[in-house]
């Protein structure tokens, strides 16, 4: 009897499920479900207007993905549920929510359905920047060692700033919450009935580490006396590494998914981190690049290094035996999507429609013949703030050099180039602080589909970029962790060796393009340092913004 594993990838706008042949690695069936509520960044379901920089989600959407996509892949492949050896889940992060004592999200209870702080705070909820600033300031004043593990600064995207925001703005929600947990760990609880928390989420997003745990109670008391005792009560101590399983499907989990009761569930992973084995990045010497709505850049190292301005590192959180370092950009695909939706003339939309192609494809076609620097534009890629290495969500995007002759395709290309410059900043920071980047392997739909963008990335970085052979790196990686949980393979390295797909190609940098881009990058860095560190006008404008 053939054996299969399932990987579930929860993204920003949808959840996708893949059924993988546990021997060959073939992705035999796939199913995608868009979230009914999407990203709630303007209103709650009841129409209540949300403030600027909010980004919420509805947990029912996550349950719908389970109940729709898992049965769907089994049906498409005509595979009996009993043939599935395990399931793995990956999720965006930090995507956190408050639960009651029964493990029910507060927003699903009638008394809390109109309270915005009772909902899931998505990773790109940036309204807790003020709280993040106070946490960082206190940590440095007290000489807290743990802050160094996060490049010296916690992001507003992380758990502690979001929890502090709830405490300060909705103390009644804070008091009602029995637990604050990642959405992935909540799903694990729903499916198995067992409370476990993944070290990858706790370590990268909640200031936990295996040596010392969470920050001390003294730190939390100094931050706000109402946080006294949060560790062990509202923040669980049941944190486990990637070599553990979350549990086994209970009757409710079996009913939701159509899978057999007792099937093992792998400990959940962050979406970008789950992609590492799918891209065959299971040791040292390569940087993994996941390009999507945002981006993630990760490197494995056997040693611990303090890298300024990155998201952090966790030992054994992704690949056992390694410290895995994480950095990222808060906006990539989101920026291009914004431009297409808000800034492109009607004539372009009409041309794209007449040709039966997307506006993105049309703009790429028009932008592709441009040579580096030909548009005369230079942009800062901060439309969703800066995640790394500045860690400031109040920063905003900028385009320099526009004239009356500037065309939409010029701007589109400049935005792509800006994200490449932001990537180069991160790669250079890694290497300056002792984490060798080596070669680069890229995954995600954009990496496979957008040849112009990936060539620009190779040219800007001056490094070859190999393209992974899967379009569903997160889901495939989750399926690999499921194969270990189900006993098909002894460890994640073995699973990756058997199940990862061959690369589909490599982008080699053009020497002349790299020379030109390096000159432009030098100017980008001047803008980066000036607006990111010296001049506070972007933060001032952020404080004035009403939408």
Can you lay out the helices and strands and say which pair or pack?
Blueprint (H helix, E strand, L loop, with lengths): L3 E7 L3 E8 L5 E8 L21 E2 L1 H19 L6 E8 L4 E4 L20 E2 L7 H13 L17 H11 L1 H6 L2 E4 H10 L4 E2 H7 L11 H7 L15 E2 L4 E4 L2 H7 L6 E3 L2 E2 H8 L7 E6 L3 E7 L10 E4 L7 E7 L3 H10 L3 H10 L3 H9 L10 E3 L17 E3 L7 H25 L6 E5 L1 H5 L1 H11 L3 E3 L5 H13 L6 H8 L5 E3 L3 H24 L2 H8 L3
Parallel strand pairs: 1-5, 5-13, 9-10, 14-20, 20-21
Antiparallel strand pairs: 1-2, 2-3, 4-7, 6-8, 11-12, 14-15, 15-17, 16-17, 18-19, 21-22
What keywords describe this structure?
about 550 residues; Nucleotidyltransferase, domain 5; 7-stranded mixed beta sheet; 22 strands
Question: In words, what does this structure look like?
Answer:
This protein has two domains: 4-280 and 468-499, ATPase, nucleotide binding domain (Nucleotidyltransferase, domain 5); 333-467 and 510-542, 2-Layer Sandwich (Nucleotidyltransferase, domain 5), CATH 3.30.420.40. 39% of the residues lie in helices and 18% in strands. Helix 12 (359-367) packs across helix 13 (408-432), helix 15 crosses helix 18 and helix 16 (473-485) crosses helix 17. 54% of the residues are buried. The strands form seven sheets. A seven-stranded mixed beta sheet has the order 16-17-15-14-20-21-22, sandwiched between helices. Strands 3-2-1-5-13 form a five-stranded mixed beta sheet, sandwiched between helices. The chain has 19 helices and 22 strands. With 547 residues, the chain is α/β, with parallel strands linked by helices.
């Amino acid at each position: 009897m053939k054996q299969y594993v399932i990987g579930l990838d929860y993204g920003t706008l949808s959840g996708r499920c893949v059924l993988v042949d546990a021997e060959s690695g073939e992705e035999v069936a796939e199913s995608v479900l868009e979230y009914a509520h999407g990203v709630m960044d303007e209103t709650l379901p009841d129409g209540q207007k949300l403030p600027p920089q909010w980004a919420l989600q509805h947990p029912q959407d996550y349950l719908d993905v389970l109940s729709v996509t898992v049965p769907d892949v089994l049906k498409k492949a005509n595979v009996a549920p009993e043939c599935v050896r395990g399931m793995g889940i990956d999720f965006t992060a930090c995507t956190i929510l408050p639960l009651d004592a029964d493990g029910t999200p507060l927003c699903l209870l009638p008394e809390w359905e109109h309270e915005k702080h009772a909902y899931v705070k998505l990773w790109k909820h940036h309204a807790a920047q003020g709280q993040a600033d106070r946490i960082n300031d206190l940590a440095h004043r007290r000489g807290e060692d743990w802050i160094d593990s996060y490049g010296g600064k916690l992001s507003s995207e992380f758990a502690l700033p979001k929890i502090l925001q709830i405490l300060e703005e909705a103390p009644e929600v804070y008091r009602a919450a029995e637990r604050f947990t990642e959405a992935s760990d909540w799903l694990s609880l729903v499916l198995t009935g067992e409370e476990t928390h993944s070290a990858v989420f706790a370590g990268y997003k909640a200031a936990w580490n295996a040596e010392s745990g969470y920050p001390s109670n003294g730190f939390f008391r100094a931050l706000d006396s109402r946080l006294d005792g949060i560790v062990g009560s509202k923040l669980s101590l049941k944190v486990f590494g990637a070599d553990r399983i979350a549990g086994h499907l209970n009757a409710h989990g079996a009913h939701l998914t159509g899978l057999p009761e007792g099937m093992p569930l792998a400990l959940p992973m962050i979406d970008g981190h789950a992609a590492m084995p799918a891209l065959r990045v299971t040791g040292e010497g390569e940087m993994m690049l996941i390009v999507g709505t945002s981006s993630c850049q990760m490197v494995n190292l056997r040693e611990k290094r303090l890298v300024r301005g990155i998201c952090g590192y966790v030992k054994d959180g992704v690949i056992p035996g390694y410290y895995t370092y994480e950095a990222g950009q808060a906006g990539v695909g989101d920026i291009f999507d914004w431009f297409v939706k808000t800034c492109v003339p009607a004539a372009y939309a009409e041309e794209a429609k007449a040709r039966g192609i997307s506006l993105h494809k049309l703009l790429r076609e028009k932008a592709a013949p441009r040579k580096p620097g030909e548009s005369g534009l230079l942009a800062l890629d901060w439309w969703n703030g800066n995640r790394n290495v500045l860690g400031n969500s109040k920063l905003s995007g900028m385009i320099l050099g526009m004239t009356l002759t500037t065309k939409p395709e010029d701007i589109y290309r400049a935005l792509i180039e800006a994200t490449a410059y932001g990537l180069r900043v991160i790669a250079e920071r890694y290497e300056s602080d002792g984490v060798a980047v080596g070669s680069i392997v890229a995954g995600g739909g954009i990496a496979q589909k957008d040849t112009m963008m990936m060539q620009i990335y190779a040219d800007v970085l001056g490094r070859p970029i190999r393209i992974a052979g899967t379009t569903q790196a997160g889901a495939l990686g989750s399926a690999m962790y499921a194969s270990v949980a189900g006993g098909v393979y002894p460890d994640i390295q073995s699973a990756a060796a058997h199940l990862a797909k061959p690369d589909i190609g490599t982008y080699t940098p053009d020497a002349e393009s790299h020379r030109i881009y390096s000159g432009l990058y030098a100017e980008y860095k001047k803008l980066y340092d000036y607006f990111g560190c010296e001049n506070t006008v972007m933060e001032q404008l952020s404080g004035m913004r009403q939408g």
